[in-house]
Write a structure and sequence with these properties.
Elements: H1 24-38, E1 45-49, H2 55-64, E2 67-72, H3 75-85, E3 89-92, E4 104-110, H4 119-129, E5 130-138, H5 145-153, H6 169-176, E6 181-187, H7 193-199, H8 206-215, E7 226-234, H9 248-257, H10 274-277, E8 295-296, E9 303-304, E10 306-307, E11 310-313, H11 325-335, H12 339-350, H13 358-409
Parallel strand pairs: 1-2, 1-4, 2-3, 3-11, 4-5
Antiparallel strand pairs: 5-7, 6-7, 8-9, 10-11
Helix pairs in contact: 1-9, 4-11, 5-13
């Protein structure tokens, strides 16, 4: 692992250890939603595309007892995942995954597709590699059409490493199939200032974090006021469980317990990655590779080596401007979509662009704040309505108890 590498994920727990430790709450919420979905499945292997230092994959491996691997563009992040969590990894281009079709039970990708120039191809690749389920999450999504329009126009298109895509729930259903479920990442209850402060919280008070996480995840419905989306497509209904293996409180506790102390290594360190190497394929032509390093493809001539002990399996440079029908034909049949539907989604995503005029961007920000205020009032009503519906049962119980006590006095 390269010297001076700083992990982006909160591997050292809230409030310490990383450059992003001042904003760990959103990361915990995203992980919470992922575990909520996956705890309802039966699976043995999992691939985390864009998994960085392996924080989420290691938690899945620990809590759900599945073998996990990490795929990311940065070899230094994968070296960290191998050294500290014992996770095998491959440096990849997300648009051409170097794995055989149906290699993993579950393929997930959190906070990655908004950065990719061709997110449709990337999600189809995830569906190709998956057998039982695909899960994709991104903070760049809103359930409100008006807020979605404002957010798209204000997105930092063209910024290196910026968020260049913005999604709706329908976009994911148009790529992963109609049965795709849409859940929110979090919801701010009304105009509560404490919720806004929580999202910026950088402390380490465990009780405060747990209480805050429960307040902003009280529903998983994709309703006005939601922020971010988790798109979950089950490809094999037989993999679903009647009851989740972890309840919500157990998941929240597990997330806060998932702390790697600086300078320590995970329990899985040293585990061989042979099971992952057996699933490798040429990222360009999907044929078997000769054992490496270097990894060679006898068909297209690809030759890939390693960096920091991590296999580098990126395809031979090629154009992605046109849809590759042959590569994705089987995947489209699996998710139950037509090529025309997917191509229309691809075109729709690629034509969404922001504005560069400072005055227009300022006016759009003002408009967005106005809409957010109105939606805040609306979700306050939704939140208070849900609380009000819970009260009759409590009131009925208290009345019954009072009646019984009164009869006892008689």
């Amino acid at each position: 692992m390269s010297a001076g590498f700083i992990p982006e994920q909160p591997v050292y727990g809230p409030g310490r250890g990383t450059t992003n430790s001042a904003r760990p709450i959103k990361r915990y919420v995203r992980t919470y939603r992922v575990l909520q979905c996956l705890s309802r499945l039966r699976f043995e292997t999992c691939l985390d595309v864009g998994g960085a230092e392996g924080y989420t994959a290691a938690l899945i491996e620990r809590q759900l007892e599945a073998r996990c691997a990490v795929a990311d563009a940065r070899p230094e992040a994968l070296a960290f995942a191998r050294e500290h969590y014992g996770l095998p990894g491959v440096a990849i281009d997300a648009h051409h995954l170097p794995f055989r079709t149906g290699s993993f039970d579950v393929v997930l990708s959190t906070e990655t597709v908004e950065h990719l120039p061709h997110p449709v191809e990337a999600m189809l690749e995830m569906a190709r590699v998956a057998r039982k389920a695909v899960l994709v999450s991104t903070c760049e999504a809103r359930p409100s059409r008006c807020l979605s329009w404002f957010s798209r126009k204000l997105a930092d298109y063209g910024t290196a490493g910026g968020h260049i895509n913005f999604f709706t729930a329908q976009d994911f259903r148009s790529v992963l199939g109609g049965p795709t479920r849409a859940l929110n990442q979090l919801i701010k209850p009304g105009l509560s200032r404490s919720s806004s402060q929580l999202l910026r919280y950088g402390g380490s008070d465990r009780d405060e974090i747990l209480d805050g996480l429960r307040r902003i995840t009280w529903t998983d419905a994709f309703i006005p006021g939601s922020r971010g989306i988790v798109a979950f497509r089950v490809l094999d209904p037989r993999a679903e469980r009647e009851r989740p293996t972890l309840d919500d409180d157990a998941i929240l506790e597990a997330i806060l317990d998932h702390v790697l102390e600086p300078g320590t290594r995970g329990a899985g360190t040293g585990r061989p990655g042979g099971w992952l190497h057996e699933r490798l394929a040429c990222p360009s032509c999907l044929l078997s590779l000769e054992e490496g390093p270097p990894f060679r493809c006898p068909s297209c001539g690809l030759e890939a080596g390693t960096e920091e002990g991590v296999p580098i399996l990126r395809p031979i440079p090629r154009r992605l401007d046109t849809f590759d029908r042959e590569r994705y034909q089987g995947t489209l049949e699996k998710v139950g979509l037509t090529r025309e539907t997917v191509e229309a989604t691809k075109k729709r995503l690629e034509t969404r662009r922001g504005v560069t005029s400072p005055r227009l961007r300022s006016a759009l920000r003002l408009g967005r704040r106005t809409v957010q205020t109105l939606e805040g009032v609306r979700r306050t009503a939704i939140y208070l309505g849900s609380r009000k519906r819970e009260r009759p049962s409590v009131t009925a119980e208290s009345r019954e108890r009072t009646t019984e006590e009164g009869e006892g006095w008689r």
